[in-house]
Amino acid sequence: MSQPKEEDRDSEDAAPLPHFRNLRISGDEQKRKSDVLPGKTAVLSCGHQMPLDYLISWCKYYLKQEKTEFTCPRFDEYKKGICGTKFSYQDMCHTVPLTPSLKEFFEERLGELTAARFCEFKACPGCQSYVERADQKNLCVHCTVCTARMGCSYEFCWKCRRKWKGAAQNNVHCGYNDCRQTETSQKKRDLIKLCQPAFKIQKLQTEEIYSTKEKSNDRQRLAMIINNVEFRVKNLNRRGAEKDEESMKSLLEALGYGVIILNDLSAAGMEAALRDFSQHKEHRYSDSTFFIMMSHGGPDGIYGINFDDKEGDILPVDRIFHYLGSENCPGLTDKPKIILIQACRGDKEGHVWVCDGVRSNKGIKQHREKDFACFRSCTPDTVSIRNTGSGSLFIQSLVKIFSEHAHEDDIMELFRKVAHWFEKAAKEDEFPYQMPSLDRTTLVNKFYLFPGL
Ligand SMILES: [Zn+2]
Ligand SMILES: [Zn+2]
Ligand SMILES: [Zn+2]
Ligand SMILES: [Zn+2]
């Protein structure tokens, strides 16, 4: 991993209160980011309620997967499962107060998806006007609007929708390495070193390990990433966080997990999403889960997008254990539940913090809570560094180490290697002092991920 530029280093995933002393937070709705409507509840046609930011985030997650119809994500007490009632954007408009900018966003994206599905039309990256593809075998598409405007021939790639790069006579793939056309499943698998079957057999015979299910249609691993990027107070926006989201998604998919990704949630939205996540039937057919939380944070927990010094909007980390514990999430009993948190835990620098060695275990009954591993980006009270260009040190180093060593090490050893990387980086490479920390971990066996098996 390359060293972050000096000027990028001071981006911390904290918004400690002292930072706000000189900041006037405007109460004027007009000046706030119009997508964010704090504290509103949405009611769907099926009768289920949810924080509005959760609903919007959920629908955006569907759009990202190129789905034009949504389903209710709420847990239904009577059905004892996820509601799943289908609803359209039009249905949503009847019951949910959307801002003009949100309406515009949804309508534009839905129009694009519908056009792409039913006709050979796509928006030109140069002028955003819809261009028809005349030759279905040709990825290189000519835009007459841009050509007329620029006075020279303008083409774009049908697959990745970028200005055409490379030889114009090559119609099968454009000049970008990451064009979606060329991104095969092979490339994804290359991300992570795969495990040999003999290794798994040997571990099963010689060590106390968590049993993992073989890759099959019956195995349904599900993970969730909550990534708060845009906050109501704009100078809290977490630039570079999208890099962490991409890396984490690729890693989890390579490990065989389906990944639900939600952006920009309030504390209430995070809690609702967490509760619904814990009730997915997939967990019953899974052998483990990952829950990843990326946001600002402080000593009291993880910050929602409405955070400011007046309103708080904080989700205590304890809620994660509450919802994923045996009582509320029987589907994950006896299965490793790995929690990764990228967020500050205070505003102190990593090299100032001194350990007093006292940790309270009060209130933890051993079997009410078991099989958790919670790995956090830093020690209590300290900051977590995020590079605004390449993402956070924690997530980026973790993904790199998992990719290289998950085929041979159990998860605690992987976490140790991440911590070792931080120690080495601070001492030898003049990285900021930051020490990832294992919290509230109750694994009773070794957990090997056995990538590829
Ligand atoms: Zn519902
Ligand atoms: Zn154009
Ligand atoms: Zn392309
Ligand atoms: Zn700070």
UniProtKB/TrEMBL annotation:
Caspase family p20 domain sequence ranges: 219-348
Pfam families: Peptidase_C14 (PF00656)
GO function term, MF aspect, one: cysteine-type endopeptidase activity
One Gene Ontology term, aspect cellular component: IPAF inflammasome complex
Region (Disordered): 1-21
One BP annotation, GO: proteolysis
Caspase family p10 domain boundaries: 365-451
Statement: the UniProt record of this protein carries the keyword Glycoprotein: no
Protein name: Caspase family p20 domain-containing protein
Species the sequence originates in: Pangasianodon hypophthalmus
